[in-house]
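Hi everyone,

Forwarding the result from last night's run.
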Amino acid sequence: MAEKNDSKQEKKLIQKKETALIEAILYLETDPLDFNTLARISGLSRDAVKKAVEKLEEKYSLEDSGVELSRIGGGIMLSAKLEYWDTLKPYYGKKNEIRFSRATLETLSIIAYSQPVTRSEIESIRGVQAVDSVIRLLLEKSLIREVGKKDIPGKPAQYGTTREFLRFFRLESIADLPKLNESEAARFELEN
């Protein structure tokens, strides 16, 4: 009987150390990491990583924690809880803060909801010409990337969002974008 208790306590201790190791890795990383990467870095099995992440989610879901595990772009990272961001933003948000013009936000929205999409398709949806400078800015900020070429004469580049886009807007995947009602969704469709 004593051996069973010792064995259970030993397993709990190992699990606590594994959880602490995953927590340390997430603390040191600035980008979201997927389970496979966490397993590779830690030397733990994928199942052990999943259990550790579950324990950390429990730990950080408590009210006395100022951080949370955020699922962003198929990965996990530690971040300040959103409820504290208004207080923290003046001190920690400036370096990450990007101010976008209305045209830039419209273009980014079109790419997010209509991807893959070409420059001329973006212009058609927006109803304006010359989105080149906005596309260049979004490419420089790594919020969009070229995802292929459209199979039409001239083979224009098609654009889509990046993992940085997901991180910037704190989304796990593109499916987490706010749902559009019918009239909003129609705005993002191309007229044939």
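The radius of gyration is 22 Å.

Cheers,
N.
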